[in-house]
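Exercise 7.
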Amino acid sequence: MSTKDMSKCQMLVQERKVRCKLEKIPKSYEDVHFEAGYATGEGINAISFELLQHETLTFKGKTILIYLNFHPKKDDAVNMIWGQLCLFASSVSSKRMITNHESSTQPIPLQNSGFETRPTNVTINTTSQFVLLNNKINVIPGWAFNGTVWYVTAGGNISLPGNGHGVQLGPNGMINQTFKSDGSYDYVLTFTLAPSSIECANNFTAVNVSGPSSSKVFNFKESLEIEMWQTYAYSIWSAEIRHGVMGIQIQSVASSSACWPIVDTILVNGIETLRMYEAMGFVNSGFEVGPTFIDNSSQGILLEPGSDEDPFNPYQSAQSPLQEWTILGMVKYIDSKHYAVPRGRAAIELVSGSPSGIVYNTQFLKQGKVIIDFFMGDANDSCVGDFMVFLQVKNMIWNFTMRSIGIGSSEKHSVTFNAKFSNNEWIPISFYSFNETRTSNHQVLCGPMIDSPTIQFSSGLRSKKLHHIWLVFSLVFVAVFIIFI
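Solution. The predicted structure, written as tokens, is:
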């Protein structure tokens, strides 16, 4: 390893930047190169990464914490090993190393995110809520637009958060905005979708949301909120290094009934890649790391799987707006400010059947006794009925029931089982429901609330998210690292 590269690695250690880049595992260890930021393979079968696992090694009283991740695609040859290897040296004790950690979040300031700054050269007509814009003479501060776009004022049949303003996207209507990215965060978009009339409060109102690597169509759905608008979240994940500028784009989806969508209150939350496991086994066990809630809204945020997302694929959690958890069907992300949440600031409500749930994919290093605890209850949103929640670990299934009267009650449940899985097998752990329940006025779909699942392991047993074979490579590189420090 060159002096220059070694200095760079030491700088990363000192700054606690645990996202390094190992461009390729070389034949000669002297060729190791470290670089801050996301890591991707370059060339044949390029690979995207997320930081998933750590191991510790004590050498001469110093604890070396290894962050590493190797995600070869399905058909990659073993000798084409590309990956991410981050070494973090610390003088703190190993006991401190396993304390709880949740990724930090950083709101990304978008310009004019709620469209309250009106377009240029526009005079609001009190007799009309819709003002047609012309991109040759009108500018929406902070936003570029094309196609047919109207500036909309709430009122009458048009309901928006805070009764403010939004934009309606007509034929080929599209808005976009860029923001700076330093490669340190993944990004989750929150936005509001509203129909232009009661008759359009159905699947005809739709938008296509695009990020750097993918896109997804969101449809307004009946009976999911009291208001005539709904809030959704979308993971703006990227399979490539994104230093500099990232963009988001929202475009209308053609509708034969001319139910053109209205969008409002667009927010972006930067989520730092997780650095270590929580002490109780699940990453993001309290669901604290997710999309940003809208300040002037008492509604939750609707979460759906990505367009091509397989909830049981362990490598697709980066595409989920809820860090490390993938989505089955549709769920609602709720906050403690407006709902009953047993612990912390957020929880998950399973709002519609067929099924509605969340999935966590993990691996078990050894066999032995495992205990999973979680809270089940109602979110204090007048959800009345008989709840049934299933907890499934691979092919083992337990079910839990409770009678809800919608006043915010909750119960703690626990299951115990013996983990008899091979240590390179991905095991899905899922919480889901098939029941359909509604609020006491029978208008809004609702369901059981899930919060704070934890895993407790017997001595010597712990979960992992990485095949153990890669630990061999990490130990080799730790040895090299130690030689130079």
